[in-house]
């Protein structure tokens, strides 16, 4: 048997320190990024960092934040987001992503290649701890085999807290069920196919759909209600809400949309020319090497900050171009996904996800999270977003007669008159998500 030499070509992702830093600059909110820039300037004599011209507290002492309603079945949203038994027992100063990266670093079963992929996926998680970027597209972006990235996602989903790395609510709940004592066919079936019925408290419908007895369904629903739909809840975001400031402002003047990215909330970076000149004045090779290294780091950081501004500006321009009726006339948001916006910008969906993460804009006197501008269609023709339908439902109910509140069927009829056809069950789900009780509970008692 003759042995012949062969060449095998394989791809592996290597996130260099420079790449990691560029991703962090794009993703971090203003307070955290400001600290990072100042720390970098302190450690690098070639980098100057002038203090920000204003701070969060100076700009917005009590910002009004618009946020999407959290998922909660069988009840109203708690405005104070009450603490639950599922909150991780870690120091509040530790951010969610720091907690995940620390676990990955302590896992000796993960090699360097898989660790790089896991770290990248952790960076793609949204503020809830969900992965809202399609895995095949991320694999294509990274130039790595899809199977490798799927293996990395599995490793991330095995981290604490349970449910992290889920791609939707059903998967988040099933991941938690799989790691707890209530993992059985009935609970999985409800988490996968029965959340709409559970949100509407339609237990008879669940029994009929799943072919189970009422007692079994009640116990299974109780188990699912005990789960945590937001894995990141209980962790620090890295920036206190009271210090949160918008990254940009959007306003309208004479029928034109104007975007102003805030360049003054972050330190102004520049090269320390006195130290840079030493590169040509010193004959010491060690000094020259040191200055070259630090100069490269300084230029990279300045480039990363400018890249953040450029990407954010492009994203806001694409966003406002996609939603002109909303920004100019106060109309409803059209269905728009991050993937659609990414395609329009010619960038990856993970770039859009990182750009909108932890960021907000000032519009009409409100500080609005960027993620709230992305909404899925509420009907199959894709012309009306679920957020727009919720807004209409809220307006209908606010204008109702308190002595004769609108039933879910009446809300459906009102929406149908406006050209929006949804089922009564969907109307009930949206009403519940808005924290609005059923008509029987809203009726004014004489």
Automatic annotation (TrEMBL):
Domain RNA polymerase sigma factor 54 core-binding: residue ranges: 87-275
Q: Which GO terms describe its cellular component?
A: DNA-directed RNA polymerase complex
Name the UniProt record assigns to this protein: RNA polymerase factor sigma-54
Q: Which domain of life is it from?
A: Bacteria
Q: Which InterPro entries does this one have?
A: RNA_pol_sigma_54, RNA_pol_sigma_54_core-bd, RNA_pol_sigma_54_DNA-bd, RpoN_core-bd_sf
Q: Which residues form the RNA polymerase sigma factor 54 DNA-binding domain?
A: 289-443
Q: Which family does it belong to?
A: Belongs to the sigma-54 factor family.
Query: What is the gene called?
Result: rpoN
Q: Which residues cross the membrane?
A: none
Q: Does the keyword NAD apply?
A: no
Record organism = Flintibacter faecis
Alphabetized UniProt keyword annotations: DNA-binding, DNA-directed RNA polymerase, Nucleotidyltransferase, Sigma factor, Transcription, Transcription regulation, Transferase
